[in-house]
Amino acid sequence: MQSEKLLEVRGLKKYFPIKKGILGRDVKWLKAVDDITFSIEAGQTLGLVGESGCGKSTTGRLILNLLQPTEGQVLFYGRNVYDVQGAEKFQLRRKMQIIFQDPYGSLNPRMQVGDIVAEPLYIHKLAQGPQVQKRVKELFEYVGLSPYHANRYPHEFSGGQRQRVGIARALAVEPDLIVCDEPVSALDVSIQSQVLNLLADLQDEFNLTYLFISHALNVVKHVSDRVGVMYLGKLVELSTRDEIYSNPLHPYTQALLSAIPIPNPEVKRERVILQGDITSPIDPPPGCRFQSRCPLAIDLCFKEEPKLKECSNGHFVACHLVDSREGCRKTDS
Predict the structure, then answer these.
(1) DSSP codes, 224-240
(2) By CB neighbour count within 10 A (0-12 exposed, 13-18 middle, 19+ buried), where does 225 fall?
(3) Coil, helix or strand for 74?
(4) Which of 66, 81, 156 is nearest to 116 (CA)?
(5) Around 160, how many Cα atoms within 13 Å sit in the side-chain half-sphere?
(6) For the chain, does the N or the C end have fewer beta carbons within 10 angstroms?
(7) What is the pTM of this model?
(8) Can you tell me the distance from the alpha carbon of 173 to that of 193, in angstroms, rounded to the nearest whole number?
(9) Handedness of CA 129, 133, 136, 142 (dihedral sign)
(10) 3-state secondary structure at position 140
(11) How many C-alpha atoms does 151 have within 13 Å on its Cβ side?
(12) What CA–CA distance (Å, rounded) separates 285 from 55?
């Protein structure tokens, strides 16, 4: 039986205007997200990876309707999130939540953490009176905090504990989809594993669906069912976790994976060192955006932009070299 597609992203674009002159005219566009398409099945995790500035976090905010797209659709349970208004939009926001990268900056320093977690319960009218405190206690227990922590302020917690508060706040409204925007990048390595295991346990218990955004491929491998690789606003490769890590097809993916340390001094991996300058997302040249750094670039890479195509069952890649080798076919899904 095929799983239900909880989320579908179709041709999503987000261009930010660059203004110039006294009148502030739009002279150029920064193409932060440029025509990406993917889907996430219910109860699964899609890891979205890439360098800083590639458009990962912008994609997450577009999905949550925190930013308006330049073009494209985001379908949640088959409904375009940009078409909903009023009460329907209010209910939609309850089902789609986010865990932020900075566990301190995302919490109000003037509020006790118990009130922070209780606030969405009041807003969505999910509990009243004594039921609110009971629910807050349950949420704290879910994320590994004690009930007495509710009376403390964010500055009284460690980074890992603050992120647990953020997770509890996201869980409070019983969401179906959670966008995890680099939730462990600001934490110590020893704490990262605890938070990742917590997210995995919560997913199993509540059948949550995650979009897990990160620049650390070793972290993404631990939590994801499928992995998408972004480069300068483009999705360049998408497949299952095992396929991406065992058979990367795009040169950029290969370079990223070669940089992951292997905890065995006897095992050696050939390191792919990228040379050249990063193409500007403001005024990208024709052809592939990875052309200036790709060690395998051919003439076609400088003339024609590669399309995302399916090269094997569920393995999509945007690369002229792979296209010529494997006989890929263009995908509309």
Answers:
(1) -SEEEEEETTEEEEEEE
(2) middle
(3) strand
(4) 156
(5) 16
(6) N
(7) 0.90
(8) 25
(9) negative
(10) helix
(11) 2
(12) 18
Amino acid letter at 70? T
Q: Which two tokens stand for residue 235?
A: 């999705």
User: In one letter, which amino acid is 48?
Assistant: L
Smallest CA-to-CA distance from 70 within 55, 85, 92 is with: 55
CA distance 284 to 302: 11
Residue the block writes with tokens 């109000």 = 108
β-sheet bridge partners, residue 228: 48, 238
The answer to whether 168 touches 199, Cβ cutoff 8 Å, is: no
Closest by alpha carbon to 258, among 46, 223, 268, 215? 268
Q: How many CA atoms lie within 13 A of 114 on its CB side?
A: 14
CA distance 181 to 60: 7
pLDDT digit string (tens) for the chain, length 333 residues = 345 789 999 999 999 998 887 777 777 889 999 999 999 999 999 999 998 889 999 999 999 999 999 999 999 999 999 999 988 989 998 999 999 988 888 999 999 999 999 999 999 999 998 999 999 999 999 999 999 999 999 999 999 999 999 999 999 999 999 999 999 988 888 888 999 999 999 999 999 999 999 988 888 988 999 999 999 999 999 999 999 999 999 999 999 988 877 776 666 767 777 787 888 888 888 899 999 899 888 899 999 999 999 988 889 999 998 864 554 544 443
Tokens representing 300 are 């076609």
